[in-house]
Each structure stands twice: as structure tokens, then as C-alpha cells.
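Box 3.1 A note on notation
Throughout this textbook, protein chains are presented in two layers. The first layer is the amino acid sequence; the second is a C-alpha cell string describing backbone geometry. Keep the layers aligned when reading.
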Amino acid sequence: MMPAARESLLDAAYAALARRPWSAVRMVDVAAVAGVSRQTLYNEFGSKEGLARALVRREADAYLAGVDRALATHTDARERLAAAAEWTATAARGNALVRAMLTGCWSERLPAPTLSAVPSSSAVPAQRRADGPLPSPADFVALVRDRAVTVLSAPGAHKADTAELGRSCELAFRLALSCLSAPPPEGGVTDLVRTALQRQPIRF
């Protein structure tokens, strides 16, 4: 199957999830919306669980791509981290799957695939990846921190400085995660991160 057709199926599954609980989403309906047969859907994802894993994997990748874009939006390092924190809050507000992945709180409406890898016999490379490990909240902390450190570290930076930078990057992300359960006023995530980072000793 062409990647575009796989995306159409994932789009159809995501749209169905917005309207009803995952337990009520039917594979035949997802296939019909995407304009393919139910057998084609099963050939691509293997099962409804496989479709759920692929959907979660896609939303995780899209969230992390947004982090990368946010980190590239400014020249000032603190503003880059503030932008990544704001994106985290925005993405979680607009996408229940992203929120669940970042917090570990999966409501009954959502699919809740196991985060560990599952046996995969799929011939589809994208599905084999989806059948691999899915990121936990702790994994996201490490992934975002390490992405930020890679972008913000000065060439040839001393190991101690890089470690300090990593702590500042992690602080910014953890502040963003705290705002998911207790949302600040609009723009508050950015202000919170800016204020916190101004007190950090790291030389950006």
C-alpha cells in the first residue's frame, strides 16, 4: 500500500476516535471512510490493536516533529525552550492521544496499547515500527531534553556545561507537563518557562 493510503486510513481512524470511544470504532467503518476494503485495512495493520499502535506512533512522531520546529523558531536559547514548552501545552490541548502519551493518563475513550513491543509479522516497515516500543511519559522527557540539548549545545561544549544545559532543557519540559494538569492563563506556559530559565546558571 502507498504511504498516502496508510495515512488516509490513520486519518479515518483519528476522525472516528473524535466522534466515539475507541471500543466503538469499527474497522469496516474506518476502511469505508478511507475508500478501501476491510481486508486492505487488515493487510496494512494486522488488527485493530495494530491500527491503534500505528495511530499512537504517528501522533507521537507528529508531536516530536513539532518540538523540532519549535526549537528552530528563535535564535535565543531560552525563547526556543519556551516555544517548545508552549507547543507541548498546545499539542496536548488539541490532541487527546498526545495528552495521554505525555501524562500516562489514558481515558476509557482512547485506545491504550501496551508500550512494550509486540510480536510483529508484518511485511509493512511502518507497521513493524509501530509494533515496536511506544514512548512512555519518561521516554518523552528524555527525547525532548536530548533534542533540545542537540540544538542548543555550543560546538565543543564542556561536558559539565552540556549536563547543566540538559537539566535546564528538562526543567522547561517538565514545567510544560505540569501545565497540562493545572493550565495557566493563555501565554502562561511561555512566561513560566522564561522566568524559570532566567534563574538557571547555565550559559546558553
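The CA atoms of residues 125 and 131 lie 10 Å apart. The chain is about 70% helix and 0% strand.
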